[in-house]
Amino acid sequence: MVHSELVDLETKLRDAQLRPTKQRLALAQLLFSDGNRHITAERLHSDAMEAGVAISLATIYNNLHQFTTAGLLREVVVDASRSYFDTNVAPHHHFFHEQSGTLEDIATSDLTVDNIPPLPEGTEISSVDVIVRVNSVRG
């Protein structure tokens, strides 16, 4: 990692009120240095092991949730047993490719949500997240 990248990641963590520990910096480097990603905790753990970062899966989960709470990541729950962490925290939606288990971004401008039912009393919409599940068509 180049020194300026390390400084940028340290700043990013500090700005999010997270202490830039060695493990957090290593995870931040894996998460943020190659463009936007959709990643599971298990995949990040595998990436960390391949990069020589000794870290437990439990620590990966803890840090992913801390990064999410701090606004650095967005958790995308695909089903009760599968969550992805998205480095793109801007409002957008997703295609979920069921066969490959991958997510693909959909720009908010490419999808319109109409006919939202009346909201429960005393509530307001904070966001609308759409996951469009897709399968390959066999021709």
UniProtKB/TrEMBL annotation:
It is found in: Cytoplasm. Keywords: Cytoplasm, DNA-binding, Iron, Metal-binding, Repressor, Transcription, Transcription regulation, Zinc. The keyword DNA-binding applies. Its main location: cytoplasm. Gene3D superfamilies: Winged helix-like DNA-binding domain superfamily/Winged helix DNA-binding domain. Pfam families: FUR. CDD domains: Fur_like (cd07153). Belongs to the Fur family. Homodimer. This is Ferric uptake regulation protein. It comes from Sneathiella sedimenti. The gene is fur.
